[in-house]
Design brief:
169 residues; Helix Hairpins; 2 helices; rod-shaped
């Protein structure tokens, strides 16, 4: 009977060691999976930070464009004022100067106005393009944040599963 107990004890011990080995193998596999998830998370975090830097850079560029627009608007205002003054002067000098000279000045002023309008339109187009770029970057950031959140949820679920497996008999 003692041999039977020793044999049973030996079998139980071997079975317990086998179960322990299986659990250790599962823990190693889960740890490896966790490390992979953390690595992907870190990569996406780096990508997120790069996008954030791009957004910050775009914001600085937008502010620069706003200042340029303000400067051009002031220039346009000054030019408009100058044009009005020139026209008034031209009207006064009309009696004293030749008609072709006056027409030449007016044509030049109209060309300046056209050029200013062209520059304003180019700036408006650039502003629109920059806004679209920012919108696309913000969408990209939102997608990255969503992916990070999903990875964090996966990590929590994985962690809970590991804990549950470790605490269950």
């Amino acid at each position: 009977m003692m041999k039977h107990f020793k044999k049973k004890k030996f079998e139980l011990k071997n079975e317990e060691e086998k179960k322990q080995q299986e659990l250790e193998d599962r823990i190693r596999a889960l740890t490896s999976s966790k490390d992979e998830v953390e690595s992907r998370y870190n990569q996406q975090l780096i990508a997120y930070r790069e996008v954030q830097q791009k957004i910050n850079f775009q914001s600085v560029e937008i502010e620069s464009f706003k200042r340029q627009i303000e400067s051009i608007q002031m220039t346009v205002h000054d030019k408009d004022t100058e044009i009005l003054e020139t026209r008034e002067t031209t009207k006064k000098d009309c009696q004293q100067t030749k008609l072709c000279s006056i027409q030449k000045d007016i044509d030049m002023n109209d060309e300046l106005k056209d050029r200013i309008k062209q520059l304003e339109n180019e700036l408006k187009d650039q502003r629109y393009t920059d806004r679209n770029t920012i919108y696309e970057l913000e969408n990209c950031v939102a997608d990255l944040q969503k992916n990070i959140l999903l990875q964090q949820i996966s990590i929590v679920i994985l962690d809970r599963t590991i804990r549950r497996n470790l605490t269950s008999p």
